[in-house]
Design brief:
Layout lengths: L1 E6 L9 H13 L4 E10 L1 H12 L7 E5 L5 E9 H11 L3 H16 L7 H18 L4
Parallel strand pairs: 1-2, 2-4
Antiparallel strand pairs: 3-4
Helix pairs in contact: 3-4, 4-5
């Protein structure tokens, strides 16, 4: 099916779109899953804050929010990413913007796969799975 990338209210262009699509397919394959319709929406802190309040009853900034529509082994959903927050994260963690963006993108994919990050143990597992996926990026041509 389709993996797509869109902007909502910001001027941002994802580089290497085809490579990102191959990477996401490879990551899903590691779990025995296939992409259904996955839509990444790059947006601002303000929009993600509104979504966080309206849909999750959280009153704070976040880097990613996912809405999952998976059926069987076809992983589908919308992944909303705050480019503002990714920039803040990258600076805070001392990593390149592109690397932090991929971490946040795969974080959203892992949520679509059913992984959670609410407690310390879940956060540790999520971080490990993110790192595994980031290493797969190096294998994608």
């Amino acid at each position: 099916m389709a993996i797509s990338f869109h902007n909502d209210g910001i001027d941002f262009k994802l580089k290497e779109k085809l490579k990102h699509k191959r990477w996401i397919r490879l990551c899903l394959g590691e779990y025995g899953k296939n992409p259904g319709k996955i839509c990444f929406v790059f947006t601002s802190n303000e929009l993600l804050m509104l979504m966080n309040r309206d849909y999750l009853n959280h009153n704070y900034y976040t880097d990613v929010i996912t809405f999952e529509y998976t059926e069987d082994d076809m992983i589908s959903g919308d992944v909303f990413i705050s480019i503002d927050q990714v920039k803040i994260n990258a600076k805070s963690y001392g990593v390149e913007f592109a690397q932090e963006l991929r971490r946040v993108m795969i974080h959203g994919i892992l949520h679509l796969l059913g992984l959670k990050d609410e407690g310390a143990e879940e956060k540790e597992i999520m971080g490990k799975k993110e790192n595994e996926a980031l290493h797969l990026w190096l294998k994608v041509t």
